[in-house]
Amino acid sequence: MRILLVDDDAPTRDSLAEYLTLLGHAVSPCSEAVSALNVCRNHDFEMVLSDIQMPGRTGIELVRDIKSEDFAITPDVVLYTGHADLELAIGALRAGAYDYLTKPINLEELGAVLERVAEHQSLLRENVKLTERFDEVVAKATSEVRAELEQLREMLSQQAGLDNIGIFSQTMWDVVSQARLYHDDRELPVLIQGETGVGKDIIAKLIHYGEDNSRSRRPFVDINCAAIPANLFESELFGYEAGAFTGSVTRGARGKIDLAKGGTLFLDEIGEIPVELQAKLLRVIETKTFYRVGGLTKVEADIRIIAATNLDLTERINEGLFRSDLYYRLRVGSIIVPPLRERSDDIVPLALLFLKSFAKKRGKSFSEISPEAASVLLGHPWAGNVRELKNAMEWISVMHDAKQLLPDHIFGFLEGMQKSYATIKSVAPAPNTRAVRKSRPADKDIDAALAATGGNKTRAAAQLGMSIRMLYYRLASRTQKEGK
């Protein structure tokens, strides 16, 4: 961040400037408030860090001066003082200070304040872009961006028409058929459940875009409920009116519900939404209206809501972390996307689809999968689901080049995972253990390791102290012996 540091005490100012610079911030030091205000007028700062007690104008007066200026984006002002005075702190906050610290400054506390300011400023700048410059940005979109957007629309339309989206098992065809039915009724909220990496976002887009390409122009706005701090979630979702809180944009800002008007709001990781906001979200679903933060006017919400989660929401309800009425309202339309291990018919065709795509992108020759490699793919549990399979094919397309995918190509990826798993385990070794050279595992040891890891061969190999390649070899040899 660009930080304006104001303090009349040179040693304090210099030490703080050095510390902030070490953290990667660009620091401009000033010794008094009047010159600091002039610097602030001529440069763009995200944060002003100032002492309160200074000759001439105080830090609190500097806050008022900054708040009275017409900045495009007003910097957040954090004040500090050596006087632990509650009235002084209240006065600073009333003047418009973002936060208040006491000397000697606790560096951990300062670091936390810096993170909050950075997040707040990022949100403010995003909102300015979306509100004040939205039309300008759209008007100046280049032909390349337009072509990319058109390509995206075409791709999503093909997906919604079930054309080349990698659906090979009857289980997934049933899921897609459900999505097609839900597309026809925008009034119907839909809850998509499934493990991480199964493609819940793709199903949400299928529900939104459907098969009619003309409808693809409706907005699809997604929000990751787990990635937004609880104190910012309400303004992010509902937007806010001008002057709703200190540091807010003077013209107010639209929220994600406004941006999704006429289309779909996709709430990913819905299980992480703050409990105190769940009642407000329920009201939006039921009444199709909402209030912006700091607003008194009811706003129409012409949106459909699709939510997704990898959590067991019934458990969250029992723990008091999710409202049962919201859960039952969301799952009027319900889709459960099964994990990849439960639809083995998808594994090899999906791997080939991904492999060909990455090979074409990188100018590689991969065009088929050998029977032996297919057996390895089917034998791996794919705990990361489709995302892990796709990552594996991308890694292989970077590291290798051949016409046919072979087991050795896959083993390279799996052995990398095995090493990562072994590294994680070695960070916190069990107490009172000694390094002992392991003997060659017997068949019963292999069976026990597979049972203990739920069939996860990568973890079983790490537990046995053998390579993933050797584990597959032992299993294949045993199968051949039993077949004779």
Say which CATH homologous superfamily of the largest domain is assigned: P-loop containing nucleotide triphosphate hydrolases
Which value, in Å, is the CA radius of gyration? Answer: 28 Å
Categorize the overall geometry.
globular
Low-confidence stretches: 156-164, 427-437
The total domain count is 3
Task: Write the CATH fold name of the largest domain.
Answer: Rossmann fold
Proportion of beta-strand residues: 5-15%
Notable traits:
484 residues; alpha/beta; Rossmann fold; Helicase, Ruva Protein, domain 3; 3 domains; five-stranded parallel beta sheet; 16 strands; 13% strand; globular
Description:
This protein is α/β, with parallel strands linked by helices and 484 residues long. It has 3 domains: 2-131, Rossmann fold (3-Layer(aba) Sandwich); 149-338, P-loop containing nucleotide triphosphate hydrolases (Rossmann fold, 3-Layer(aba) Sandwich), CATH 3.40.50; 342-483, Helicase, Ruva Protein, domain 3 (Orthogonal Bundle), CATH 1.10.8.60. Helices cover 52% and strands 13% of the residues. The protein has 21 helices and 16 strands. It has helices at residues 10-22, 33-42, 59-68, 86-95, 107-131, 134-139, 143-160, 170-183, 200-209, 230-238, 256-259, 275-287, 313-318, 324-330, 347-362, 371-379, 385-399, 407-427, 443-452, 457-464, 468-483; strands at 2-6, 26-30, 47-51, 76-81, 99-102, 190-193, 220-224, 239-240, 253-254, 264-268, 289-290, 299-300, 304-309, 333-336, 368-369, 404-405. Strands 2-1-3-4-5 form a 5-stranded parallel sheet, sandwiched between helices. α16 packs parallel to α18 (407-427). The protein is globular. Mean pLDDT is 82; it is low at 156-164 and 427-437.
